[in-house]
Amino acid sequence: MEPVYRSIIGLARTVFFAQGLKFDVKGDEHIPSEGGAVIAINHTGYMDFTYAGLPARTPKRYIRFMAKKEVFDDKISGPIMRALKHIPVDRSAGADSYLAAVDYLRRGELVGVYPEATISRSFEIKEFKSGAARMAIEAGVPIIPMVIWGAQRVWTKGYPKRLGRTNTPISIAVGEPIQPFEPAAELTAKLHATMQDMLLDLQKNYTHEPGAYWVPARLGGSAPTLAEADAMDAAEARAKAEARERKHKSAAGE
Prior knowledge:
Elements: H1 3-19, E1 22-26, E2 37-41, H2 48-52, E3 63-68, H3 69-73, H4 77-83, E4 87-89, H5 94-106, E5 110-113, H6 131-139, E6 143-149, E7 169-174, H7 184-204, H8 226-251
Parallel strand pairs: 1-7, 2-5, 2-6, 3-4, 3-5
Antiparallel strand pairs: 6-7
């Protein structure tokens, strides 16, 4: 029994109902009823993780999400994240979070991971990092692919939140478990291809508004292409690195 997690889930469902969100979940039978597994999720918005936990409630499981350390440092969200036993990720010391995730998996937990690492501005499947594959191999557990579509309409990078009653449809698909194998690069490629196919299947049955910001360019929307989004991410990363360097020099009195 996890009273805090159960309470948070109850609160989230109340919020979802108030927002009028319409969930279509398929494949929840692929979430194992026991034992560890890496839950690999695509990343299109800030609310992805709240929706990703829904399929796990069928077998009455909880997902421990890997989230950036800053969320744990916050006075409000920090205590909640720790109570839910999520895993902080310090990008300057990623080995600690990786080892913590492997330990969770070996103890039979479900660990939620975003292989893309950051939100996809194009809403396409970005290039994957190898962490999900490596931890599955090391812990000897399967990877469960999960794809969410529609979450970007609620709140995504660069656009206002839409947290009121929007009646937004959100589709969630859970794929068959992928057993771990080496090398990690090939397992990562298989995971990427699987989730790409799952995304295309979800999009076939979803109504897309021509020209809308949340619709990929491939489907007639105004979102940047994958290449354009990658360039935007690279520019943002350079700007952040330069800002950190200026801050470091200022602190050093240079």
